[in-house]
Structures are given as structure tokens and as C-alpha cells.
Amino acid sequence: MCIRDSKGKKGANGATKELELVFGYWAFLFIVWGLYRFLFRLPEELEEGILKPFILLGPLFWLVGAKDNRPIFPSLGFSRKNILSSCYWGICLGAILTFEGLLINYLKYGSFSFISTPYESTGAFLVAFGLSFVTAFCEEVAFRGFMLNRLAETLKEKKLSTLLTSFCFTLIPFPAAFFVYHYPFPQIVIYFFLIFLASLVAGFSFFKNKNVLAPILVHFFWWWPIILFR
């Protein structure tokens, strides 16, 4: 009986530490990224191409390798398995979310309303294309590869883990919505509903394929209508 209690306490302590690691990382992202959005504004190329990978992935790789003592890439959902399946699900689900975004834009404006963008030249379009992929890569590795993966492993409940991860993921853009884009309240509600829904879909694709490539593609294809149809 004592042996069981000892193992149970050890397991409970391990789960607590794992949850502290996960939510501590999320709190770090929320505070640091939120403060940055409140205090500074750099060109998008620097923000998404350099600053975001540094803030999201730098501490994460250190946490996984040094604190968690695990192999970095396999434990973050990178796998050679199910690559074709991940591409299929990622592209198909991303296309559905893209259609949903376009439909909401049409219902909002009564037509497809493009924003004026600097993406008219081929070079600028390719830069935006690359930045979108970098953003999708960083955020999905952080939230699906790490946070969702660890929560599901610790809580033993995929649905609850997906909801918790999606809620945390949805809170991250709050500073940008208020301080950068200055969205009115109705637009904020729609914006965060879309983010939460996309996060749920990304979580489903991650568990379906056991590969972080699928949610990266879902995120990438979902983000384009938000860029082009604000």
C-alpha cells in the first residue's frame, strides 16, 4: 500500500510539474508578446520573420531540451510518418477554413472586400507568403507541438486539452487586436471566434495525423483570407 502511495505521489508531482512548465511557457508568451505589442511596433518582416521565432521557439527549445530533458523535434510533433496524410488533412481543412473566412467577409461587406495591400508585386507577395509560413510554423510548434501535446499526455483527455490550448491560443492576439488593429468590439468577437475555431481544427488535425505538419498547413491556409480580406 505504501509503495502505491509513493508512486501515486510521484506521478502527481510529475503531472503538476508538467502543467507548470506548459502554463509557465504560455504566461511568458502572453506577457512578453503583449508588452511588445503595447510598447513597440516594428516592420512586419522583422516581427514575424525574426522576433516571433526568437520569442516563441528560443525559450521552447531550451525548455524541452534542458528542463524537460527530451529530444527536441520528436517531442514537438515532428515526424517522418503520415507526411502525405498530414498534407492532405492540412490542405483540405485549411481550405474549408479559408472558405469560411471568405464567406464571413462577404456577409459582412456584401461583396469580397480586399484591403489595399503592398502585395501587388511578385516580390512583396513572396515575402508575405514566406512570413505567413514562418508564423504558422512558430505558433503551431508552440501550441500544438508543445502545449497541446503535453496537456494531452498529462491530462489523458484530448478534448479538454484541445479546448484549453485553443482558449490560450485565442488570448495571445488580444494585445494586437486592441493596440495595433484597434478593432471595434463586434469585430473582436468575430476575430476571436475564427481564431478559436481554427485552433480546434488544428488540434483535430494534429491528433488525426500525429504530426505537427498538419496544423501548420491548416494555420497557413486559414491565415490568408484574414490578411487579404480584413
Index terms:
single chain, 230 residues, mainly alpha, 82% helix
Short characterization:
By secondary structure, the chain is an all-alpha fold.
Structural account:
The chain is 82% helix and 0% strand. The protein is mainly alpha-helical. Helix 5 (122-155) crosses helix 9 (213-228). The longest helix is centred in the first third of the chain and has 38 residues, at 2-39. The radius of gyration is 19 Å and the shape is globular. The N and C termini lie far apart (62 Å).
Task: Lay out the secondary structure.
Elements (H helix, E strand, L loop, with lengths): L1 H38 L4 H24 L4 H4 L7 H27 L12 H34 L2 H14 L2 H6 L5 H25 L3 H16 L2
Please state the average pLDDT score: 84
Detail the poorly predicted runs: 1-8
How many whole angstroms does the radius of gyration measure?
A: 19 Å
Number of helices: 9
| Percent in helix | over 70%
The N- and C-terminal alpha carbons lie at a distance of 62 Å
Gross morphology is globular
Strand-residue fraction?
Answer: under 5%
- What about the largest sheet? none
SSE-based structural type: mainly alpha
**Order of SSEs:** HHHHHHHHH
> How many strand segments?
0
